[in-house]
Design brief:
83 residues
């Protein structure tokens, strides 16, 4: 049912790392692709634009992992309350 068999705290930590990494990639890509475009060659410019695509994708994965971890924490709390 859950994609990872880790503790919810570990999933939260992983999701935080993915969220920060995605944000950093997005910001670096935006600054490089649109702020320094006149100074870059074509290959570097393509790489910078690809970071603007990868950054939000990693952000989304981190957000979904965060939702999964929160749901698992809620499920565990309910299980302890019923026991």
């Amino acid at each position: 049912m859950y994609p990872l068999n880790l503790a919810p705290a570990h999933i939260l930590h992983l999701s935080s790392q993915l969220l920060w990494g995605g944000l950093i990639l997005l910001l670096v890509g935006l600054v490089t692709a649109y702020g320094l475009e006149q100074h870059l060659n074509v290959a570097t410019l393509v790489l910078a634009h690809s970071l603007t695509l990868l950054g939000p994708s990693i952000l989304k994965i981190g957000y979904v992992l965060r939702l999964i971890a929160k749901q698992r924490l809620k499920d565990e709390a309910c299980a302890y309350a019923l026991a």
